[in-house]
Predict the structure.
Amino acid sequence: MSDDVIRPCPFSKSYGIPARQAWGLLKVFFLYRLILASLFVIVGFGHFGPAIFDLYNPALYSTLSLTYLALAIISGMVIYLRLFDYAFHAQTQIFTDIIIITLLMHACGGVTSGIGVFLVITTAANGLLIGGRCAMLFAALAALAVLAEQLYTAQTHAFESKAFSSAGMLGGSFLAIALLSYILAGRA
């Protein structure tokens, strides 16, 4: 089994990860997601939210943090049982993080809330878990999600500040980190 190589990206057939290492990385990423989701729930329901985040929409934050925790727990069980192939697990977790963290960022006041930093960690993990062109694709999706959130905020006048430059720099950091983690994973 140690000789098995997983090719998680259909667009980069040359990028492969030893199966044992790949599943190990996925389990570590699951633990990170479980801890992060638990912290979001503790902050939201432990009445620390207003002290830590300027909650724009507390109901949305509560719903999303509980949903994120439930999805993290379910993904852990599915990974443990290996109900699907590795690529499906990794891509689903990364895509879920992009959507949920972007919406949590909106619930906390947008790009200036600092929640978008957690997408940087997801992007770095993306380069290690999936690699290849798919890593750049998911980084681009994360950048577009942050920019879309900022556009929505500006169109609806939801917040006082407009942070297009911060959203652009955060999106650019996603692409840079995905490229760097892809390069570093290829050298390992």
